[in-house]
Amino acid sequence: MEQQLLVACQEGNIEKVKNLLQDLQINPNCRDDDNITPLGRSCRLGHVDIVQLLLSDQRVDVNQANKGGSTAFSIACVYGQVDIVKLFLNDERVDINRSTTVDATPFWIACKKGHIDIVKLLLNNERVDLNKGNKYEISPFYIACYEGHIDLVKLLLNDERIDINKVDHNEETPFFNACWKGRVEIMKLLLNDERVDVNHLNKDDQTLLLVKKDILKL
């Protein structure tokens, strides 16, 4: 019966999901061969009505880990499912800062993927930890710079809660790595912000200009 539930979620068949959930013998937290739950699968595919239905079932573990430690909320952030993210943010049971196995929070994931609409939603929720880094201490702002999401970087720069100089495990700043990665437009943007520490030393006591002298050509 659990397999039927997984298939119904995969296909977006809400009527079948409703019928299956009426059977109290069914485990709504079952997993498929990829270690994904019905809720996680529905989030990935954007089946908003099914996600809403599953969230209304008190048996469903809304914070259950899927493959890689991702919660269903994290999966929604990965795939840019804005309407589903809204549902989760309105549910107080949801741990909106729960990390994956590499310590990536949903906010971090949204910044990496460049899902600016989701980032905006999360910025407006006071429960979200906006500066929590992953296992390499790479912050959400850092990863947005590194990935070259310039509109997202502009958005984050306008939020005073963002630590724009938070360093990674190599003591390198977002500015350092945006330059190292060759994100010229982001580099220029950061150079125009007086808060940015352009002279911060990494763990080898080097500044960016010592490591990458061709930056001087800009």
Largest sheet: none
Strand content: under 5%
CATH architecture of the largest domain, by name, is Alpha Horseshoe
What percentage of residues falls in helices of 4 or more residues?
40-55%
Low-confidence stretches: none
Ends: how far apart? 62 Å
Number of strands: 0
Q: Which fold name is given in CATH as the topology of the largest domain?
A: Serine Threonine Protein Phosphatase 5, Tetratricopeptide repeat
What radius of gyration results from the CA coordinates? 20 Å
Order of helices and strands: HHHHHHHHHHHHH
Highest-level CATH class of the largest domain: Mainly Alpha
Shape: elongated
How many domains, as an integer?
A: 2
Task: Kindly report the average pLDDT value.
Answer: 92
Q: Superfamily at the CATH H level of the largest domain? A: Ankyrin repeat-containing domain
Structural class: mainly alpha
Number of helices: 13
